[in-house]
Amino acid sequence: MKNRSYLLVFGIVLLAAGLRAQESSTYCNNRFGFCVSYPAALKLSDDGPANGDGIILEAGQGMEVAISGSFNVMGWTPERIFEFALEDLSTDLGAELEPIEPRIDEDGFETRFTDGRTYQYARMWSLGDTYLVITVTGPEAEREQIEVLKDKLIPTFGS
Fold it and tell me: Exposed, middle or buried by CB within 10 Å (0-12, 13-18, 19+), for 75?
């Protein structure tokens, strides 16, 4: 009987830990009409944009998540926004980057970038006159964790 009690308590502890690990928070940006659900363990960075375009979340191990919206005032296609993102990241890292597995269509793009030291996952959704960009950036050594984390960032539109 005592063993059953220990097993029951152990099972409850595991269940509680599993539920806690699945807790999420949500960031909504009414200006651009989207919300993004993300793991509650991520912490809001002090370095977020002051203009209300989005947020930056710290994920540990040198990883960060950037969530931002923008007005498409230039009427750029997803392909042009992708090219701009590549140019911008190349400038930030001081390196020529090659995108990994880029997928670009009329709804947006999804790709990964690396310079051998830094790895970034990037996803953009075209929303007509606005767009949403989510990036997960960190050390190349955290590539697998970045790929796991990006799947936990769930956008919804029309907020």
Answer: exposed
Q: From its phi and psi, is residue 106 left (phi > 0), alpha (psi between -120 and 50) or beta?
A: alpha
**pLDDT tens figures, 17-70:** 444 456 999 999 999 999 999 999 999 998 877 777 999 999 999 999 999 999
Amino acid at position 134, single letter: I
Task: Give the C-alpha distances (Å, rounded to integers) separating 20 from 13, 42, 148, 155.
Answer: 10, 13, 17, 21
Q: Which of 129, 125, 142, 133 is nearest to 49 (CA)?
A: 133
CB atoms within 10 A of CB 33: 16
| pTM over cut 0.90 | no
User: What are the extents of the domains in the chain?
Assistant: 24-157
User: In b/e form, how buried is each residue of 96-129, taking b as 16+ CB within 10 angstroms?
Assistant: ebebeeeebeeebbbbbbbbeebbbbbbbbbbee
CATH topology of domain 24-157: Protein Transport Mog1p; Chain A (3.40.1000)
- Going by the DSSP 8-state scheme, the letter that residue 4 receives in this structure is H
